[in-house]
Amino acid sequence: MTNVYSFDGILVFGLLFICTCAYLKKVPRLNSWLLSEKKGVWGVFYKAAIIGTRLHIAVAASCLIMAFYIIFLK
């Protein structure tokens, strides 16, 4: 189990948040509802979705590395 208050937990949470927002950007109804704001608190979802779509190779590699780390090394 990964603790949220550790550095590992923060990295896992960040990666899952970015991956989830990038996935939600592909769903038309959720894209217009959740990712329409570009500023403020709701803008965090939009910015995470942009990071997930533009850096999809780096995000996917980071997810694989983090999964390997959690399963085998931790």
Automatic annotation (TrEMBL):
Keywords: Golgi apparatus, Membrane, Signal, Transmembrane, Transmembrane helix. InterPro entries: Kish-B (IPR042863), Ksh1 (IPR009653). It comes from the Eukaryota. Its main location: Golgi. The chain crosses the membrane at residues 6-24, 44-72. Belongs to the KISH family. This is Protein kish. It comes from Salarias fasciatus (Jewelled blenny).
